[in-house]
Amino acid sequence: MANRDMERLEEAASPHVLRDYVLIADGWRGAMINPDGEMSWLCFPSWSDPATFAGLLGAGGGYRVAPTERHLYGGNYDDGTLIWRQRWVTPSGILEVKDAMAYPAERDRAVILRRLTALKGPQVARATLCLSSDYGRVASAQWRRREDVWLAEAGAIRARWHGANGAMPLGEDVGLTAEVRLEAGRHHDLTLELGLGRLHYAAPDADELWKATEAAWAQAVPRCADVEAPKDVRRAFAVLRGLTTPDGASVAAVTTSLPERAEAGRNYDYRYAWIRDSCYIGHAGAAVEGAERVLDDAVRWVTQRLLADGPETKPAYAIDGSAVPPPSHLGLPGYPGGSDVVGNKVGSQFQLDLFGEALLLFAKAAQSERLDADGWKATELAISAIEQHQGRPESGIWEIEPDRWTHSRLICVAGLRSITQRDAPSRWRTNALALADSLLRTVDGTSLHSSGRWQRAPGDPRVDSSLLLSAIRGALSASDPRSVATREAILADLSQDGYLYRYAEPTAELGTNEGAFLICNFWMVLAKLRSGDLGGAGQWFERTRASCGSSGLFSEEYDVAQHQLRGNVPQAFVHALLIESAAELARA
User: Hey, is 45 helix, strand or coil?
Assistant: First the structure.
C-alpha cells in the first residue's frame, strides 16, 4: 500500500498548466490546488515566508484529497467567495470536495478546511498529507497520534490533522495517508491546523468554522448589483480580499517563479505588496457601492508607506512594511520552464509614477470624504516627491532600465490635477497645479512624437500601452489630439487578435517574446469609454474577461496562440481593473 501511495503522491505532484489551478486564501496566506486535488503551494505563516507545500516548484510537501477510482474533474467557487467546490465524476457517481481556509484568520495560525461529500453514489477518497518547511527542503518529524488527532512538526511549524483517524504512515518521515469511505449523501471533514510554536487552541469544530467562513465572505464581498458581469466582479473582489491582510497590504500574486515565457529567464517573485497595485485596487473599491473597505485598506497602506519613507518610498514592500529582499535562488527544480527565484529587484528601484498613482488614490478617497489627516500629510509628501524627482531617470511602470519614462510623468500630472480638484489645503494647492502644468510642458517638449502621439521616452520613439492612462486618469482629455493619436497608434501597433501588448520589441513580432498583458486590455476598455465608444469598450471587455483560467483566475500575461495563462497567478491588478471596467461600463 505504501509504495502505491508514494506513486500516487508523485503523480499528484506533476505540474499542470496554470489555467487549471485554483486559489484558497485567508488574507495572510494562500494555497494553490491542482485538478488532482493536490494542494501544491502554501507559504506559512504568510505570503513571502518559505513554502510548507512546495510541489509547484518541484519540491516537497503537499496535501491531496481525491477519489480512488478513475475520475474526471470540474469545479467552481461559491459566488463571491474563495470557497472552492471540486467535483469529480467517477464510475460510481460524483464526489465533491469543498476547500477553503478558515476566514478571517490570524497571522500565525492557518486552518485548512476540506469537506468530502458523496453527491451521487457511494464514494471512496484517499487523503495524503506530507508536511515540510523551507520550500520542501526540511521534512516533517515523524507523525504521532494522540487520541483522534495526528501531530507533527516541521521546523518551527506545528501541525494538527483532524478527521484522519485511520491514517497510516507513508514511508519514513514522509507523511500520512488515509482512506475515507462515504455513503451516498454523507460528508466527512478533514481539518488541518498549522501554527507557530505550540497550538494552544481547542480542537476546531468543522461545522462552526464553515459557518463562520461563509458568513465572513458574505460580509467581505459587496453585492455588485450595478456592474457588468456581477458574478465575475464578485469573484474578483473575493480574490482581492483573499490577497489582502487585515493591515491593508495586498500582495501582487500568491506565487513565485512561474514563467512568463518558457526558459526565457523571466521569472519573478510577486509575493509582496506594490504601491501601484494597491492604488489600482483602491480604484476598484471606489468604483463599486459597498466596497469602501477595499478603498480604505488601500489608502491606509499607501499612506503608511509614504509617511514612513516620503520621497524615497519604494515601489513594493513585504506585507509588514519591511524591504523586499534581492533575488536569490533556492536550488529547486522549479515549475517547468521557470526557475526557483525568491526576492525581487524592485526593492532597489525608484519609480516616479507611484507618487502620481498615490495622488489619484487619495483623490478618490477625498471625493467620498474618506481621506483623514494622515492621508493629507501623505498627499503633501507625494507632491514634494514629484517636485524633487521629476527630472530623475527611473524604472517606470514596467520596472525596466531607468529613463525619463513618459507614462510616469503624465500619471504624475494626472495625480496632481486630480487631488487639487478636491478640498485640498490652499497652502500647496496652487503649487501643485503649477507643478502639473510645468511637468506637462516638459513632457510635451521632450516626448511628443512627430506624428502627434506620445512616445515612451525622449529617446524612445515607440508607443506604449501604458500611455492610455494619461487620458483615462485625466492628465489630458480623451478628445485631446495627443490622446486620440496615442490611442490610434496603440491599436495599430500593439493590438493583435483582440489583445494588447505592452510595447513592441525592435527585433521580434508581437507575442514572440511575451504574452499579451491583460491589464492593458482593460485599460483599452476604459480608454474606449472615455472616447465615447461604448460598443468598442464592450467588445474589449468581453474578450478580456474570458481570458481567465478554468476557475476564473487571471494571470498577468495571456498566451494568445495557446490560450494559456503565463506568469504568476492570480495577478491582483488584473482583477482590480476588471472590477473598475465592469463598473464604468454599467454607468456608461
Answer: coil
Per-residue pLDDT, 200: 76
Tell me the residue length of the chain.
Answer: 588
pLDDT for the residue 1? 38
SS3 label, residue 417: helix
- Phi, psi of 318, deg, nearest 5: -65, 165
Distance CA 467, CA 449 (A): 13
Tell which residue, 440, 463, 442, 346, has the closest CA to residue 397.
346
- pLDDT tens digits for 342-361? 999 999 999 999 999 999 99
State the pLDDT at residue 265.
64
| Rg (the chain; Cα; Å) | 24
Res 318: pLDDT: 98
3-state secondary structure of 25: strand
Q: Is 396:403 a contact under the CB 8 Å cutoff?
A: yes
Burial of 448 per CB tally in 10 Å (0-12, 13-18, 19+): middle
Residue ranges of the chain with pLDDT lower than 70? 1-13, 172-173, 262-265
Give the residue carrying C-alpha cell 485511520.
Answer: 166
Residue 19 CA to residue 311 CA, distance in Å, equals 39
How far apart CA 165 and CA 492 sit, in angstroms, is: 63
Angle at 492 between CA 488 and CA 496, to 5 degrees: 130
Q: Which three cell numbers stand for residue 501?
A: 501588448
Q: How far apart are the first and last CA of the chain?
A: 62
CB 454 within 8 A of CB 410: yes
The pLDDT, as a whole number, for residue 6 is 43
554, 242 Cβ separation under 8 angstroms: no
Phi and psi angles of residue 489, each rounded to the nearest 5 degrees, phi first: -70, -40
Residue 554 contacts residue 548 (beta carbons within 8 Å): yes
**Residue 165 CB coordination number (10 Å):** 11
Measured distance CA(133)–CA(3) in Å, rounded:
23
Report the 10 Å Cβ neighbour count for 72: 10
3-state secondary structure of 429: helix
pLDDT of the residue at 140: 78
pLDDT tens profile 246-272: 999 999 999 999 998 765 567 899 999
Residue with cell string 471606489: 286
- Cell, residue 318: 513585504
Residue 530 pLDDT: 98
Cell digits for 49?
Answer: 515566508
d(CA 101, CA 115): 12
User: What is the tens place of the pLDDT at every residue in 85-97?
Assistant: 999 999 999 999 9
Which DSSP helix (H) or strand (E) runs through 243?
Answer: none
The model's pTM is 0.96
Q: Compute the distance between CA of residue 283 and CA of residue 397 in angstroms, rounded to an integer.
A: 17
Q: Which cell goes with 545? A: 474577461
C-alpha 277: how far from its chain's center? Answer: 9
Q: Which of 322, 436, 424 is nearest to 377 (CA)?
A: 424
532-567 tens-digit pLDDT: 999 999 999 999 999 999 999 999 999 999 999 999
